[in-house]
Amino acid sequence: MVILGYDAATIGSSSVQVPDLVERLYRSKGASDEFRKNRNNVLFLVADVAQREAMFEAMRRQLALEQMRKPDRRGLLQPHQQRLMSFIERASMQ
């Protein structure tokens, strides 16, 4: 399995072309781009360009929640805000 970073290669829902990086990794190996003789079954996981912004937003939200979980930050919240944070945390874990 090959998991490519969201900035390394993306693919659109209407795209029928394999990204250049995926094709190169499938055909060659190593830094010397040596021909890959044994091409076993390989799965490439590539980011969907249409979902990239949603991924960024989910990551920003997760990072903000992590900051709010810190005791010194949580203590600054009002009781109703702390309850809301608990609810949001439980929802984000599902």
In short:
This protein has 94 residues and is of the alpha/beta class. It has helices at 20-27, 52-69, 71-74, 79-93; strands spanning 2-3, 10-11, 28-29, 34-35, 44-45, 47-48.
Largest sheet: 2 strands, parallel
Mean pLDDT: 84
Helix and strand run? EEHEEEEHHH
Radius of gyration equals 21 Å
| Net shape | elongated
Q: Give the strand order, joined by hyphens, for the main sheet.
A: 1-5
Structural class: alpha/beta
Beta content? 5-15%
User: Terminal Cα separation, in Å?
Assistant: 26 Å
Q: Portion of residues in helices?
A: 40-55%
Q: Total number of β-strand segments?
A: 6
Written overview of the protein:
The chain is built from 4 helices and 6 strands; from the N terminus they run ββαββββααα. By secondary structure, it is α/β, with parallel strands linked by helices. It has a two-stranded parallel sheet. It has a two-stranded parallel ribbon with strand order 2-6. The longest helix has 18 residues.
Chart the SSEs and their pairings.
Elements (H helix, E strand, L loop, with lengths): L1 E2 L6 E2 L8 H8 E2 L4 E2 L8 E2 L1 E2 L3 H18 L1 H4 L4 H15 L1
Parallel strand pairs: 1-5, 2-6
Antiparallel strand pairs: 3-4
Helix pairs in contact: 2-4
List keywords for this structure.
single chain, 94 residues, alpha/beta, two-stranded parallel ribbon, elongated
